[in-house]
Specification:
four-stranded antiparallel beta sheet, 1 helix, about 325 residues, disordered N terminus, mainly beta
Length: about 325
């Protein structure tokens, strides 16, 4: 008879044994997800590579932001990427549309709002953009190529979320703050500063919100910060000293999905963690390639209304689709 085992208990036991042995903990083990093979279906004629972000619109279309093969190398180039950088897929993986050619230097984050507008951050251009669903540019925040930490400048902005009619910009690689705007791009306020205390951020890499709380993947502080809708710190999710969170997504009923892009020991990986509203760890699962055959870097996550999960694996240039219901569930006969 099959029985279910709590993955969090297995993980905790493994870490205790490793610490008692006196050595460094081994690479974290977690059950691998069962990916949908052949998803997405990218035509051979399409230029695709180094994906960085993913989100799902109200129609179930999956938007993937990628760099068309441009690698993250500093200093960033000045010229924009010539090929389309935004691909829109159907749930079955068919490529429905593409746009964004000539728009971005080093695109990073993509978020779709409730009106199906597409918001994109570019750490090379130091700007945040709003596009229509079909790729028409409607709004630009920030000054091109000019960094700063005020109402009209960013420091490598990473991600965007939406809450109560506001636009929340995680800002970013060189600024440790959340910049808050209205939907027309007027600056309202900012939250946080560089540091490791409550309400302080060290590279806020991902941000998301539900009706009650705001979640920030505070990457280099190795935690997800939970904020009130007014930006006050309420709680944090922290998985010991095992990994850095790159992306966070509330999925309803108080559950929050977190993707860690790199293990704190080997620096690369793709681990998913499902937390309950009280911060308790519900499940853990591995989204990455077998480290013996490839290198993964979990970078962003989106969840469709049907429970399908889409994770960007930046290092292996993959977008992985799997079902959340079975992820991290271990059974034994």
């Amino acid at each position: 008879m099959a029985r279910s085992i709590s993955r969090s208990l297995v993980l905790a036991a493994g870490l205790i044994l490793a610490s008692c042995s006196g050595g460094n903990p081994a690479r974290e083990e977690a059950p691998a997800v069962e990916v949908v093979e052949g998803w997405p279906d990218i035509p051979e004629s399409a230029v695709f590579g180094e994906p960085s972000a993913v989100d799902v619109d109200s129609h179930g279309h999956i938007f993937v932001l990628h760099r068309a093969g441009r690698e993250w190398e500093e200093p960033f180039p000045a010229e924009p990427i010539a090929d389309p950088t935004v691909f829109m897929f159907a749930a079955n993986g068919k490529l429905l549309g593409k746009w964004g050619a000539g728009d971005f230097v080093m695109p990073h984050g993509l978020s779709v709002d409730e009106d199906d507008n597409v918001w994109i951050t570019d750490v090379g251009r130091e700007q945040v953009f709003r596009f229509s669903h079909d790729g028409t540019q409607e709004l630009v925040l920030g000054e091109r190529g000019v960094a700063g930490e005020d109402e009209s400048h960013f420091g490598r902005p990473t991600d965007v979320a939406f809450s109560q009619g506001r636009v929340l910009v995680a800002d970013g690689y060189t600024n440790g703050r959340i910049a808050v705007f209205d939907r027309e791009g007027n600056f309202l306020e900012q939250w946080g500063e560089a540091g490791d205390g409550a309400g302080e951020f060290d590279l806020p890499h991902g941000i998301a919100a539900d009706d009650e709380r705001i979640y920030v993947a505070d990457r280099e502080n190795a935690r997800v910060q939970v904020l009130s809708l007014e930006g006050e710190p309420l709680d944090e999710f922290r998985a010991g000293q095992t990994g850095h969170p790159y992306a966070v997504k509330p999925i309803g009923s108080g559950y929050v999905l977190v993707v860690e892009g790199r293990d704190m020991l080997d620096r690369f990986g793709a681990i998913g963690r499902l937390y309950r509203s009280d911060g308790a760890l519900e499940r853990v699962f591995d989204i990455g390639l077998d480290p013996r055959t490839g290198v993964s870097l979990g970078h962003d996550v989106a969840v469709g209304r049907d429970g399908s999960v889409y994770v960007v694996d930046n290092r292996s240039s993959r977008v992985v689709k799997f079902e959340l219901a079975s992820a991290g569930v271990v059974t034994e006969d």
